[in-house]
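Case study.
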Amino acid sequence: MSGAFLTPLLFRGGAGGGVYRTCATPRKSIDPTPTPPLKRRGFLAAFILTVIAAPVLAQTPQTAPVITSAAPDKVAVTLYRDPDRGEGAINRDAPSAFALIAETRTVDLPPGVVTVRFEGVAGGIVPQSAILFGTDPRERNRDAALLSQKGLVDGFTGQSVILKRTDPATGKVTEERATIRSAADRLVMTTPRGVEAVYCTGLNQTLIYPGAPAGLSAKPVLSMTTKDQPGGRVTITLAYIASGFDWDATYVGTLADDGKSMALLSWLTMASGDETSFVDATTSAVAGRVSRSDATRDDTGAQALNAARWLNKQSQCWPARTTSDIDPHYPMAPPPPAPAPMAMMMESADIMVTAGRMNKAMSAPIAVIATSEALGDLKLYRIPVPVTVAAHSQKQVAFLNAEKVKGELVYRSKINGEPESPEMLFRFRNRKADGLGDPLPAGKAVLYQDSPWGTQLVGEAVMRDKALDEEVELAFGDPVSVTMESKGTVDKADRWTTVTATLRNANPFAVTYELEFPTGGYYVYTSLPGKMLSKPGKKVWRKVLEPGSETKLTYRYDDNERAD
Amino acid sequence: MRLPKIALLIGFAAIPTALLAQNAGSAAGTAQGDVSVTIYNNNLALVQDVRQVSLPNGRSRQEFPDVSAMIRPETVTLSGDGFGIIEQNFDYDLLSPAALMEKAVGQTVTLLRTNPATGAETRERAKVLAANGGVVLQIGDRIEVLRDDGLPVRVIFDGIPPNLRARPTLSVAVDASRPGPRPLTLSYLTPGMGWSADYVTLFDEKAGRIDMQGWVTLTNQTGTTFNNTKALLVAGNVGQVQQPQPYNVRGGRPRGNQMGSESGGAQLGDFHVYPIEGRTTIANAQTKQVSFLNSEGVPAKKGYEYRNGWMGSTDEGQSASSILKFSNARSGGIGAALPAGTVRVYMRDVKGQAQFIGESQIPHTPGGSNLAIRTGDAFDVKVQPVVEKRDVISAAEWEQTSRWKVIYPDGSVAQGYSESPKSYYRTTMRYVVTNARDVPVTVDVVQSGLGQWWWWRDLRVQAESIPGSQDDYDTRHWEVPVPANGKTELTVTFLTPW
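After joint prediction, the assembly is written out as follows.
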């Protein structure tokens, strides 16, 4: 079934550059200089030492030597946006989307079957998604057995450890050998005096272990076991999906004084909630909705971390303080996992603006602009220079800078039987002729306008994914000086409702007002006021309201579902 | 070069054994024998463990530690020569401070009190009267609740009751007709182990091809490490009672999936099996992946699909789904059944780096099937469905249009007319399909909700600008061609009783 698994992805499409180019070197590019025998013996000696120091050998399968790849040489990070976040901001403490991380690593392998441990991968790795380029592994493993109090106690169950007690009054320290009998639910130990529970007596006591079990690691570890191979220096590219990342597009628009155009600057806001920093990474972001499978999207190793936590000695423990809480029928449930260390995260969170700050919008020159390209049916934004995606951080890079996007300011009421209250929007067409013509990924838009009192915030709007040539409406707020008042009266037959709407413009300038009548909805509209524009799914009444003017209009509507 | 390696192996064999001897109970010093594990998809595994056990003549009690901590004890069978089973016990009364205290009711324990001011220790014997909400002790002629004063006190028990264990343990009482060592085969079912497939698919859109690798992903949450194991993976959900329903793909899959009928590969009855080469250690809390499939240059194409609900109308264009279509037939290059799992699709960006473009679940897929996988939403291909017009029509008009009637595959026409409703509706739908890509595309526009209730099979399509085809009583679809950087409008008029 397995056959020769010759990493097809590696040899294919070698024309491309980027991170994967390093894989285009032969799979087992053996170091041309023969290994001196002395060096080889040194390795063997190290190997014996490793074995002796590792009593829990079964964690590493068979007798394969373990090579550790501590960190990647080169890394590429591609961030994906959470499409279900909607209008909400990125949750900086727990970003809700993911990233594809591609790491290039160099390892020196001894000949034969070898286990390679990859350290320094993202904490949020989804192990099933890992792909290895440039190697032909027999199997890949991801061990979530963690070095923790629970891991230590489990590893030493049945073995002898040292129980150390400190007398709080005299400071006298006593140590005695004790055997861990059970950690199934709290610790039970055999001491020279008999059997007793530890951490439950109210005394100051702790356990001292002779060593850390070798199979336990500080973080969930990804490893691979190779087939029989000749050894030598190998370049491996490890690509995987890691959760805990997110990005968003932020549009900063400055409306022209006449409201007929807008300067638009856009930022990629990228957030990492991972504990691993990716230094000088080739960084990009993907726009568009990507399908995720529920089976794997939340496999972040959080379960293992929680399991490792529950034996904390600070936790409630029998017979701590009083024994009145003993439940005779059920073993005590593990306490809920400790909350994430919020305070620490907050402290280490730093917000970086890579190219200029936004105090005076658009005044600072933009040094780096991410470029966009099509990735199948998605859009990829590439940051042209390597940047560091730091742990628990947020970063912004500009990706679009349009000086003048032509459009118009419109006041609008949608109609659902009666008209809804008016809103203000800026409408433009995403095309070159109007000064834009780039795909616009979803995000938030902030609109400013210069005034005699400096730059003022006009409002915030939601931007959805907009392709070329689409019409974009940024509804940014409710007007104060343009008002709409409506009154409906039902006819004698209780059939038609006649609506009279009064529009008033109290501004010293003229405004364009639109009323949108939906077609095919629950209501049928008749006696519409004058000439109507046709748009998909709606008919639009449009009029320029002069300053200080009042406009009246009437229409009728009826329940469409009524039978003849 | 050869010599030191051999020496190493010998030394290596000797050292860990010495270390492991004292390591009883931990994962390394395992009591397991020759273990083989058959793992099913639905969180279930069959463990067979052949252990060398020396039985005394007559009745004895044999303990089998290092079985799965999630063992289903009712499924245990023990087989071997020359003995009969009296009873099987599964002891899961775990050794904990609370259990120790409960078992000590009626017995005497030692209390060791430490004076917080002076550090002086005093000992006294106490009888545990009860452990129901507060441990009630009798010390001499006094009755006291343990630690109600909040002062430190150590309770020292004289021993551990025999049935309290650190880990769940299986014990079997046997009656042997002859003494001596023999192999005993212990087999049982355990949840906590399962597997699924993970597929890495690299899509080359220009060439219209995919490269596909399949990995078996095995997880072990049983709490037990299985050492040096023969593993066999069975692709299928074996029947289980009182288990959650197996993974079921409902309506959510895009059009174009059709199960095939090609056989091939190792099978076990109806199920495909995937043996793992050699022996492997399945550690606790481990996710293990082994390659099982590697195909290159499989023809594949991309499609678009947009599904609209009844009377669905949107303010702006909605992205159509991107669908990747390929076959696992022998002629295409895969030629193997695909066990249920997750297909992850990658594409190269302009610099040649593989980028993730989406993933999707597939069910067990026999050979020769057509697969259609939703990878995501197309940024540039959008559909805006709008209800253009909706009005009530008279019964006479309804009769006049009867020549437009759609014939359904089940042919139950008579039944449908017997419940003629009082009013009829004409609904004109417009689907605005836009394409901002620089290549022409074809979008499958699917309208669902046409069979609102099963007895209303009275749908008529009066007019449609592009001929559609009825997939079933509820859905109809149109293949809408859209030019590069262009727009196509599809209009359809439905006559319905709702």
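Observations recorded in class. Residues 1-62, 312-317, 324-363 of chain A have pLDDT under 50 and may be disordered. Chain A touches chain B through 148 residues (CB under 8 Å). We will return to this complex in the next lecture.
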